[in-house]
Design a protein that fits this description.
Elements lengths: L1 H54 L28 H7 L2 H43 L4 H7 L4 H16 L6 H23 L3 H33 L4 H74 L1
Helix pairs in contact: 2-8, 3-7, 3-8, 4-5, 5-6, 5-8, 6-8, 7-8
């Protein structure tokens, strides 16, 4: 019986401990629930009061705008006139001077082309007419009569007649012909220099025009790089106008030089043709003079023939 009581007592002690633990857990749960219930109304009151506060919001306080540091390429440059005239007006003084010189050279080129072209055309036509007149003449005196008032071959014909008159007391006809040929050769050279006058402008423009334009381009690009270093930007919209202005100088140099070279080559061939025609005219005068001298010598021999027979 005592053994049964001891066993029951030993079993009852853990049961009591378990009951105590369960009771403690229940008390803790009840306390936590009570705390949660007491906190819920406070939160509800807060959520209800919030709309009241939002219904009458306080006026916003203006805040000072914080300075924004400019970034590279953030500032868009003002649009520029990129027409040829606009680029000329915005170019630097040196580039403007280069472009002005090239424009004047281009104007001079076309002026010389027009004036010299018409002059060569009329001069060659006049030479052909005078050569035909010389071909129809039988004597030098007749040729001078036909050429009177015509400047191209009148001077060589008069020079040949003057040499014949100055050598009338000389016997050697070969010496007279040689002196006439010398006079005609000098007149022919003078006519060639006269007809080629002003073509040096074309040669100079064609030779140095591209280099002058290139100088303006180098100067303009150098100024563009200086502007890049000062503005601390490599934005193409900032760099491109200066480079375009610089390249315009090269374009103007080519515009001045290319027509000058082409026109100079055309005039060179035309002047060579004029000199050939002038040479034909002086050769015709020399033949007339030689014929007159031979005729005079033949007349003198005929006149001396009777005296020689006696």
């Amino acid at each position: 019986m005592e053994a049964t009581t001891n066993v029951t007592t030993m079993i009852a002690k853990p049961s009591r401990l378990a009951a105590l633990v369960v009771a403690a857990v229940l008390v803790a749960a009840t306390t936590a629930a009570a705390d949660a219930q007491s906190a819920a109304p406070a939160e509800t009151n807060g959520s209800v009061a919030a709309p009241a506060e939002s219904a009458n919001p306080a006026p916003p306080v203006p805040l000072a705008a914080a300075p924004v540091a400019p970034t590279i390429g953030s500032l868009a440059p003002e649009p520029r006139d990129l027409s040829p005239w606009g680029m000329f007006m915005t170019a630097t003084l040196v580039v403007k001077a280069v472009m002005t010189c090239l424009m004047l050279a281009s104007v001079a080129t076309w002026t010389v082309a027009l004036a010299k072209g018409l002059g060569l055309l009329f001069a060659k036509r006049e030479l052909r007419t005078q050569i035909d007149a010389l071909a129809r003449s039988a004597t030098l005196a007749e040729a001078i009569g036909r050429l009177r008032g015509q400047a191209a071959l009148e001077a060589p014909a008069l020079a040949a007649a003057r040499e014949i008159d100055m050598s009338s007391d000389l016997v050697s006809a070969a010496g007279i012909k040689e002196r006439i040929a010398s006079r005609l050769e000098r007149l022919e050279a003078a006519a060639g220099r006269r007809i080629a006058r002003a073509t040096g402008v074309l040669a100079t423009t064609g030779a140095i025009g591209p280099f002058v334009g290139l100088f303006g381009t180098v100067w303009g690009i150098m100024n563009s790089f200086v502007g890049i270093s000062k503005q601390h930007t490599t934005n193409l919209a900032v760099v491109a106008p200066g480079i375009a202005e610089a390249l315009l100088a090269t374009a103007m140099g080519l515009v001045a030089a290319i027509p000058a070279v082409v026109i100079y080559n055309l005039f060179s061939r035309s002047i060579a043709g004029y000199r050939a025609l002038y040479g034909d005219g002086t050769a015709e005068i020399l033949r007339l003079a030689s014929r007159d001298l031979d005729r005079s010598a033949q007349t003198a021999r005929v006149a001396k023939a009777p005296y020689a027979a006696e």
